[in-house]
Structures are given as C-alpha cells and as structure tokens.
Amino acid sequence: xxRACFTLQVRPDRLAEYRAxxxxxxxxxxxxxxxxGWGEYLLYLRDDGLLxxxxxxxxxxxxxxxxxxxxxxxxWEAEMAPFFTTGDGRxxxxxxxxxxxxxxxxAAGEHPPRPNGDAP
Length: 120
Fold this sequence. Notes:
The protein is an alpha+beta fold. It has helices at residues 15-23, 27-35, 60-68, 71-80, 101-107; strands at residues 2-9, 39-45, 50-57, 93-95. A four-stranded antiparallel beta sheet has the order 2-3-1-4, with no helix packed on it. It is globular, with a radius of gyration of 17 Å.
C-alpha cells in the first residue's frame, strides 16, 4: 500500500458549505470509496480554497476509476462540481513525495518517532 497526495482548488466563496458537506458524506459514498480501495483518505482545506488530499491505495488511478464506475460517485461528483474552480473535482494535481521521515530514519538505522512524540 502506498500513499498518494493531490490538490484541488475549492471556490473561496463555497468553503463553509464544502466543509459542511464533508462533515456528513453519504454512507453509500463512503462505502464506494472503501470498496474501490481508498484507505486512510484525508482532506485538508486551506482558507484560500487549496484542498490537499492524502490517500493510501495500491494504485490511485485504478482506485479513482473503480469509484468513478459507481452510480453514487456520479451523483456525488455532480453535486460537488460547483465547489471547484475547474467546474468539477477531476482536476487533481498529484504531488511527488520528497521527504519521508520514517524512511530516512530507517535508512540511518534509527527508530521512527512514537505517536506521542517520545524518543524510543
């Protein structure tokens, strides 16, 4: 399983409603994402509308195609399209990983940090 990161741009005048919609995503949409291979899926939203998504999946393109093939995704995307500056949510720009603390610590023979921040 690998992690993918992407960005989208939410219209600044729609931020409050975008946040509200994501506070209670339809249960069938949640299941469609899960069943399509989306795991540990997180969205972060900045005040200017920059949306950053992080997801764990074996293949982002395949996971996107699988969720796109569901009926509920079509309905969700149609409702969410007006929130994006591109007119849809399909303009994801993926980001390349440039630093991984745990990987570099492991390569140096060190232990990764503990969840509470204490040294091992």
